[in-house]
Amino acid sequence: MTAEPGFKQPAAAPSAAVPSAAVPSAVIELVGRARRILLLTHHNPDGDALGSAFALARILGRDGRQVDLALTGFWSEHLSFLLDGLSLVEKPGVFSGYDLVVLLDCHTFGRLGEDGSTADDLPALVVIDHHPLTEGEKAGENWFVQPDASSTGELVWLFLKACRLQAPPEAAEALLLAIASDTGFFSQSNVTAGTLEAAAGLVEWGGCLERVHRRLKADLPLRRLKLMGSALDSLRLHCGGRLAIMAVTPDLLEKAGAVMADTEDLVEMGRSLAGVTLSALIKDEGRGVGRVRVSLRSREPVNASALAGFFGGGGHRLAAAYNDPEAATAEEAAANLLARVERFL
Ligand SMILES: [Mn+2]
Predict the structure, then answer these.
(1) Structural domain 222-344, CATH architecture
(2) Cα 327 to ligand 1 centre (Å)
(3) DSSP string across 62-98
(4) In degrees, to the nearest 5, what angle opens at C-alpha 30 toward C-alphas 165 and 24?
(5) Cα 195 versus chain centre, distance
(6) Radius of gyration of the chain (CA)
(7) Measured in angstroms, how far is the CA atom of residue 9 from the centroid of ligand 1?
(8) Under CATH, which architecture does the 20-217 domain have?
(9) End-to-end distance of the chain based on CA atoms, in angstroms?
(10) pTM (2 decimals)?
(11) Do you find a cis peptide bond into 221, omega within 30 degrees of 0?
(12) Nearest Cα to 156, choosing from 148, 147, 144, 168?
């Protein structure tokens, strides 16, 4: 094949993205066999977590199985439609009522809630997640963990393909939303050929991208735009314009009549500024030391996950977060960040 002038031949075959053959057979068997399934995901679930949970609950619940979902924390109101018709339960202290627990979009029980609960009496556990393993972590044989995948939604799609299951349209659309919400609507560097293949398959199954876009990017409440305005007002540039810091404080929330869940995606705005390689959004709900959260979005070569890890948090290379263990206020979290950030930029 000769390339047209002006187009570079790829140096090597494009990466195979995420191989679908990688779904461990133990995962397929366990899910196939289970009759009472509990779905769990991370604290403050996002679009990827909720879209993936909705789709799995709809698909697995079709043949008379009990599928419950337990959530902790807060989520955006505009994602609440993803809970319609699901069986929502309190996160149980014991898991004896279930024969399978599925962890979605996270792989450690530490991410399930602020109580840091673990489960000693777990029945079978299946993990479907795209967060990288931290040092020392080892994937179990029932883990379908692919850090190269854009989203858990993409992995659920691969799982369905491997099981030869087809999602009904509303579940396909929820997976499309999951993928869209973790990829900045298919605009980020985590989008691979595999991601687009998944999206194409989900559209074939009846998912509608335009409707997903409306769900995520339009039909927003006024308070969200108001909060966006005041958060942008708080934006300050540091480190020669490479670092943007915004802060949402109890005061700002009250003035906008907003809740912290309305800050979703706000941190992206800092990263959209020319010259910025790291955007930080400090979320202070006035809950004291250790509860001030810092969301990070970076551009290459800045590794947001390494910085988050330094403060005891984690995430992906270009999108990560941590709770500042020492800060009680947004100003303290900003000062701590500024004192330590230089070597990560
Ligand atoms: Mn995710």
Answers:
(1) Roll (3.10)
(2) 27
(3) GGS-EEEEE--S---GGGGGGGTT-EEEPPPS--TT-
(4) 75
(5) 15
(6) 20
(7) 32
(8) Alpha-Beta Complex (3.90)
(9) 41
(10) 0.82
(11) no
(12) 144
pLDDT tens across 90-149, in order?
988 778 889 999 999 998 875 555 454 555 667 889 999 999 888 788 888 899 999 999
DSSP assigned state of 136: T
Compute, in angstroms, the gap from residue 104 CA to the centroid of ligand 1.
9
Instruction: Kindly give the residue spans of alpha helices, DSSP state H, lying in the chain.
Output: 25-33, 47-60, 152-163, 169-182, 193-204, 209-217, 222-233, 250-256, 266-271, 304-310, 330-340
Give the CB-side neighbour count of residue 211, counting CA atoms within 13 A. 13
**Interval between CA 174 and ligand 1 midpoint (Å):** 13
| Amino acid at the residue 310 | F
The strand pairing partners of 238, in sequence order, are: 243
The Cα-based distances of 279 to 55, 175, 217, 266 in angstroms read 32, 27, 20, 10
Which residue from 157, 195, 202 is spatially nearest to 16, judged by alpha carbons?
195
Query: pLDDT tens digits for 24-72?
Result: 999 999 999 999 999 999 988 999 999 999 999 999 998 889 999 999 9
pLDDT-above-70 percentage for the chain: 90
pLDDT at 132: 87
What is the rounded CA–CA span in Å between residue 312 and residue 205? 41
Domains of the chain, residue spans:
20-217, 222-344
Q: What local confidence, expressed as pLDDT, does residue 14 receive?
A: 43
Q: 207, 220, 198, 217: which is closest to 151 by C-alpha?
A: 198
Task: Please tell me the distance between residue 272's alpha carbon and the centre of ligand 1 in angstroms.
Answer: 21
